[in-house]
Automatic annotation (TrEMBL):
GO terms for biological process: DNA recombination; DNA repair; telomere maintenance. Residues 222-427 form the DNA helicase Pif1-like DEAD-box helicase domain. Its EC number is 5.6.2.3. It comes from Lithocarpus litseifolius. The keyword Oxidoreductase does not apply. It comes from the Eukaryota. This is ATP-dependent DNA helicase. Its cofactor is Mg(2+).
Length: 619
């Protein structure tokens, strides 16, 4: 059947659009003539390939390739990758990026080193140390040392030791942003300090030296009336060293971020320390020196009623928090109240003050019209219970309101419309559906309306593939991942140039008997994990789904432009924010679902396996 499948692919162009397992859905097998012929009936057929255990060696790798290569014309074709024919299916599968290769971390560094961007390479090396738990760190150091120091100035008297120390100090700084120490890794010892002048902890120095351009200092003068009132109320409390927790409530676009920036600029320019955080990394990037609240305060990822933050009283972070005059937490409504309660507990403990948030001035911000915190598979009651407004702390919070929409100040009709929806007073057109303004809508007239939508949002896409400005201003948003995948599929084909496919390596932890087949794992995308196949082209916009490097604003939600794509690394350019234009390397990193995925139970003659297992992917 397989060799006849090859034959059909040689003679029938239509056949070549299918994988082997899909082929039998369109062609049927004639036992007598031992050949395939096109199906005539519309009967639904499900295609599959016999399962093969990894212990069967080459047969297993042949199956892996068959599950990814459409229209092969023979074994030779399957063994050939980029014009080179490999002696085994295993090698061919590795070359196609279908197998996790022991060597893939080295390959990743190698691919990145060829692009000759030493500072991005140093950052990549630190990312690999933090996320990929590589074996043979010293070998990687030795092999890529020269590439990583390539841009350090050299003179006739510069010794190797100078470069080594400089590189180690740079790595130390990069690792410290992930709360990791360089001494945890098998790297040479630093024999000379960088020019750190004071004994002040690095974390405090960083806060005191957050860069601020002149524009930030002018924001206070530009505040409109409602923001001015909120600003003065907060500043008065800070200046009189009183304690208070505020909640700044404002629909999207009313200038909450603008207000925080004005507050931060005023306080920091007076030499005060003000910590800026947000629930999501991408929101935090809008604030100078902003960090994700969970990572800044070391809040557990899934906080519970009695959780606390893991900050020891003697740590530098504790010292920083003691010196802080104000803490800002944007988009606080989208966080589980247990996270806020954990912060309250740790602040009381660190400050040794028995009042809400240890007597610190805390500014929470958000919009009551936004979505509530996520409680996976939670009931309505559980969802409501998770909101910070239902925390016992809420009664200590003073609410301040912003009302004037500054983002659409020149479009009152839209601004009013958005407010009515948020307040729940826009009349329903039918059931619980509201009518979208006709100026914003493309009428649904069948599938071609999708093409129309794409054309409307990305006009003349082919001519703008590398245009960062063009990409920044455009995005299609949808509610569910399935639609995202469908739209991505359509849009990526419109980009010029050759497509590169990147595959994840999926596995179920503790499934030593390989009861879950690769192709099954590849076919599911549990929450938070990307799809098995990433189709990329140079010039295509991409979005990062993981907090990799908050310092350069590389976090969940950062938008980038693909500048190059290899089997183990993506060369990308940051599109927005302070670091727009910076080139970064994105390696494959292991990802794990935050919760157990309910996989179907597998029953075997001898084995049955529980159906809630952790699912990992290496994307
Ligand atoms: N007083 C002001 N003067 C001029 N522009 C302003 C003012 N306040 C806000 N803006 C502008 O209005 C836009 C929206 O402001 P901002 O992003 O601060 O709102 P937001 O409430 O944080 O919105 P969201 O909740 O959607 O994040 C920004 O472009 C900001 O620069």
């Amino acid at each position: 059947m397989l060799t006849e499948f090859f034959t059909m692919n040689t003679i029938d162009a239509d056949a070549r659009q299918y994988l082997y397992r899909e082929f039998s859905e369109h062609y049927c097998w004639n036992r007598n003539s031992k050949s395939w012929r096109r199906r005539i009936s519309n009967k639904k057929v499900i295609g599959r390939i016999y399962t093969v255990s990894p212990s069967e060696g080459e047969r297993f790798y042949l199956r892996v390739i068959l599950n990814h290569v459409k229209g092969p014309t023979g074994f030779q074709d399957l063994l050939t990758v980029n014009g080179i024919t490999y002696p085994t299916f295993k090698q061919a599968a590795e070359q196609r990026g279908l197998l996790e290769n022991n060597n893939s971390i080295r390959q990743c560094m190698l691919e990145a080193a060829n692009i000759r961007m030493p500072s991005a390479l140093r950052r990549l090396f630190a990312t690999i140390l933090v996320f990929c738990e590589p074996i043979g760190v010293r070998d990687l150091w030795n092999e890529f040392y020269l590439h990583m120091v390539d841009d350090y100035p050299s003179s006739s008297i510069t010794t190797d030791v100078v470069h080594t120390n400089r590189l180690l100090n740079d790595l130390k700084l990069l690792l410290s942003q992930h709360d990791r120490r360089i001494t945890e890794f098998d790297l040479p010892t630093i024999t000379a300090r960088s020019n750190e002048s004071s004994s002040m902890p690095r974390i405090i120095q960083d806060e005191l030296t957050i860069p601020m351009d002149d524009e930030e200092l002018t924001l206070v003068d530009k505040l409109n009336n409602d923001k001015k009132f909120v600003y003065n109320t907060i500043m008065e409390v800070i200046q009189h060293k009183q304690t208070m927790t505020f909640f700044v409530d404002g629909p999207g676009g009313t200038g909450k971020t603008f207000l925080y920036r004005a507050l931060l600029a005023s306080l920091r320019s007076d030499g005060h320390i003000a910590i800026a955080t947000a629930t999501f990394g991408i929101v935090a990037t809008l604030l100078p020196g902003g960090r994700r609240a969970h990572s800044r305060f070391k809040i557990p990822l899934i906080p519970e009623a009695s959780s606390t933050c893991s900050i020891s009283k003697q740590s530098d972070l504790a010292e920083l928090i003691r010196r802080v005059v104000v803490l800002i937490w944007d988009e606080a409504l989208m966080v589980n109240r247990h996270a806020l309660e954990a912060l309250d507990r740790i602040l009381q403990d660190l400050m040794e003050v028995n009042s809400p948030f240890g007597g610190k001035v805390l500014i929470l911000g958000g919009d009551f019209r936004q979505v509530l915190p996520v409680v996976p598979k939670g009931t309505k009651a559980e969802l409501l219970d998770a909101c910070i407004v239902n925390s016992p702390l809420w009664r200590y919070i003073k609410i301040l309101h912003l009302t004037q929409n500054m983002r659409s100040i020149n479009d009152q009709q839209f601004s009013e419309y958005i407010r009515r929806i948020g307040d729940g007073i826009e009349p329903f057109a039918k059931d619980d559906l509201i009518k979208v303004l006709s100026s914003m809508a493309i009428p649904w007239e069948g599938d071609h309306s999708i093409a129309q939508l794409i054309e409307q949002v990305f006009p003349n896409l082919q001519n703008h593939a590398y245009n960062a400005r063009y990409m920044v201003d455009r995005a299609l948003l949808t509610l569910i991942n399935e639609d995202v995948d469908k739209l991505n599929e359509k849009i990526i084909t419109q980009f010029p140039g050759e497509e590169q496919k990147l595959y994840s390596f999926d596995e179920v932890e503790d499934d030593t008997q390989h009861l879950y087949q690769q192709d099954f794992l590849n076919s599911i995308s549990p929450g938070g994990l990307p799809p098995h196949i990433l189709r990329l082209k140079k010039g295509a916009p991409i979005m990062l789904l993981r907090n990799i490097d908050p310092k350069v604003e590389l976090c969940n939600g950062t938008r980038l432009l693909c500048r190059g794509c290899f089997n183990n690394v993506i060369d990308a350019e940051i599109l927005t924010g302070q670091y727009a234009g910076t080139r970064v390397f994105l390696p494959r990193i292991p990802l794990k679902t935050t919760e157990n995925v309910h996989l179907p139970p597998i029953c075997d003659d001898k084995v049955s396996i529980s159906n809630t297992l952790e699912f990992c992917t290496y994307n």
